[in-house]
TrEMBL record:
Key words of the record: Signal
Entry-linked InterPro entries: BON_dom, Lipoprotein_DolP, Transpt-assoc_nodulatn_dom_bac
Species of provenance: Rhodoferax koreensis
Segment forming the signal sequence: 1-29
Stretches the record annotates as Disordered: 54-86
Domain BON: 95-163
Protein name: BON domain-containing protein
Pfam families: BON
């Protein structure tokens, strides 16, 4: 009970107020003629009403806490999903950077392609090549080289080769 008081002081205040109200109503009924009840019987009725109000408030508090707990669990699931999504986005970005670096390094190894600047962009494993190519054959080799890199899902070759 001590933890409950600390966890929700507003609820404790509500319970005390409900009890005081029930007691006041019970005691004010003592001044009325109602079937010959004694003061003790009237006080017992007031105490019973206070206990009933306290029980109802306790049940309301339990329901509110259960609802809050359920909401927090749902929020936790959403936070977990958001964290997983963010982790996947970071992993995809890192993978794309690794693919871009690997494709660029592989292109530099080709004697015809190493002398030119080829822009390599990667998004979700899809590689896009742009820039000049010294020949149509070198342009096609660039596509083959990029396709040979681990993690590449597709290659869009936008290299421009001289007409020949």
């Amino acid at each position: 009970m001590h933890q409950f008081k600390q966890a929700n002081p507003g609820l404790r205040t509500t319970l005390v107020a409900a009890g005081a109200l029930a007691l006041t109503l019970g005691l004010s009924a003592c001044n009325k003629q109602d079937g010959g009840q004694t003061v003790g019987q009237k006080l017992d009725n007031a105490v019973a009403k206070t206990e009933q109000a306290a029980g109802e408030a306790k049940n309301d508090a339990k329901n509110a806490m259960a609802s809050a707990e359920s909401s927090m669990k749902g929020s936790g699931s959403e936070a977990k999903a958001d964290a997983k999504e963010a982790a996947n986005a970071v992993a995809n970005t890192v993978d794309d950077m690794a693919i871009t670096t690997s494709v660029s390094a592989a292109l530099v190894k080709d004697p015809d392609l190493s002398a030119i600047k080829i822009n390599v962009d990667t998004k979700n494993g899809a590689v896009s090549l742009s820039g000049p190519a010294p020949s149509a054959a070198a342009k096609e080799r660039a596509t083959s080289i990029a396709q040979g890199v681990k993690g590449v899902t597709s290659v869009t070759n936008n290299l421009t080769a001289p007409a020949g």
